[in-house]
């Protein structure tokens, strides 16, 4: 009798060990195009941690890095078709669907990162959300894409004259591209995941990105010169598929939205930490660093403000005025 009980207990224990874990009520996929240790994915992992912890395991979050789910445009379309839950793109990138958003990628519109936070965490952010949510997505919060600087393989850049003739890759965002053209470059739109090879093969001479992108993508291997132009501070919109959002319970919606807002603080802190440390690392890797005359570049791109107002009317004017009004608030 005793042996039978022992065998039964052993069988029960084995069954418990091999039985699959209870399935989560909701599975959320997050897709990004950057490497796993990039600040964007620090934010993604924080979203994952907070949602899973606060839902008590009812929600399973899975992060896919390095463009595993496609490039940015493909993932936005997956959101809109209801086959992906979360990704993020910059405001200007979404200009393909809502053109006025391109206004927010005019060069030297933001003084610094704190200025951008004040704008997007206030009325501007609310108006942007209203525009974006007409296109099959729910906007949950804002991550920092960062302050962008120039690199190239040809020469040091100290002012607009030094950019003449250089082919510089930009994202496919009209006012982002026009900013580089006004600064003096031959701007060339291209997907980020094509960029390293394009510079290696000489298809383009250089690019512009935050220091974290420059470092994590190993652009120092193909570009010798880094110019701290600080010409654009970009903001990522954290987007959820509208179709899939409607299927999420109100309780879970609250958990997800708050997790994004809380993760944004961690993600922004990582960007700031990288900006403080990566310049030294890039110099160690052999990049020649210049600090250009930003006033000259600012004057060169200034006409884009009037162009945006002429193209988009009152929305563009109001947004530019909002940004200027928050410039020097302490």
From TrEMBL:
<dbReference type="GO" id="GO:0030288">
    <property type="term" value="C:outer membrane-bounded periplasmic space"/>
</dbReference>
<dbReference type="InterPro" id="IPR038404">
    <property type="entry name" value="TRAP_DctP_sf"/>
</dbReference>
<protein>
    <submittedName>
        <fullName>C4-dicarboxylate transporter</fullName>
    </submittedName>
</protein>
<keyword id="KW-0813">Transport</keyword>
<dbReference type="GO" id="GO:0055085">
    <property type="term" value="P:transmembrane transport"/>
</dbReference>
<keyword id="KW-0732">Signal</keyword>
<dbReference type="Pfam" id="PF03480">
    <property type="entry name" value="DctP"/>
</dbReference>
<comment type="similarity">
    <text>Belongs to the bacterial solute-binding protein 7 family.</text>
</comment>
<dbReference type="InterPro" id="IPR018389">
    <property type="entry name" value="DctP_fam"/>
</dbReference>
<feature type="signal peptide">
    <location>
        <begin position="1"/>
        <end position="23"/>
    </location>
</feature>
<dbReference type="InterPro" id="IPR004682">
    <property type="entry name" value="TRAP_DctP"/>
</dbReference>
